[in-house]
Amino acid sequence: MALAKGVCLNHIARESADIKRLATFYQQVLGFEQIDSPKYGEFEVIWMKLPPSFSLHLIQRNPSTKLPEGPYSTDSSVKDPKNLPRGHHVSFAVSNFDEFVQSLKEKGIETFEKTQPDGKTKQVFFFDPDGNGLEVGNFGTPSQ
């Protein structure tokens, strides 16, 4: 018997030194909308929503945190999207895959594209401005 019932994903949180820059990226690239955010006083937050129900919480980074902010703050080869570790990304599906990839290229975003052996499933991997891995695919949509 499962311990939790009715479980669903509520939100994903990303910590950043520049949450306004990150919010602009998610608005311009994936169409997130900014929604009312609570006021915490000691740090800034921006809450965003991707209709109908997926939420993203951008939280001002604690300057005393010892962990690196993301792949861009390391000397690792993970800066190249083709080296994105398998478990380091959030994935989205789009119905206009080819058009979406073209828009990433027009924005100067470095990408790595992959087509699965079925010849139908296409994926593109890239990073947000803080180096968080993103994947977008034509999952469950007609091949283009």
What does this structure look like?
The chain is an alpha/beta fold and 144 residues long. The chain folds into two domains: 9-61, 2,3-Dihydroxybiphenyl 1,2-Dioxygenase, domain 1; 77-144, 2,3-Dihydroxybiphenyl 1,2-Dioxygenase, domain 1, CATH 3.10.180. The protein contains two helices and eight strands, in the order E-H-E-E-E-E-H-E-E-E. Strands 1-4-3-2 form a four-stranded mixed beta sheet, with helices on one face. It has a four-stranded mixed beta sheet with strand order 5-8-7-6, with no helix packed on it. A hairpin with a 5-residue loop joins strand 7 and strand 8. The mean pLDDT is 83.
Offer a concise description of the structure.
This is VOC domain-containing protein. InterPro entries: Glyas_Bleomycin-R_OHBP_Dase, Glyas_Fos-R_dOase_dom, VOC_core. This protein is 15% helix and 28% strand.
